[in-house]
# Entry
Amino acid sequence: MKIIKIVEEILKEDKNARENNSWLLYRVWRKYTRIFIPFEDFKKLPSPGSIMRSKRLIQNQENKYHEIEIQEGVTFEKPLKMRKSHKF
# Structure
């Protein structure tokens, strides 16, 4: 089942999911993975958005742990700035 269908089904049947993003996320992950974590414990977990923002901060602002380093064991080098293209 596609994620959009899962979300729609939950929103249709669960008023709490319409009003509480944490509850919606909890319900989606429970249905999608069939892993049960009590909601009180789930609420303590960082949101996916917080995790991704932290990743971007570490990789982009601190310039650490880029994919190429992990895969190839080389130091990351910032790409050269591209010259502005000419308009034809």
User: Anything to note?
Assistant: The two ends are 47 Å apart (CA to CA).
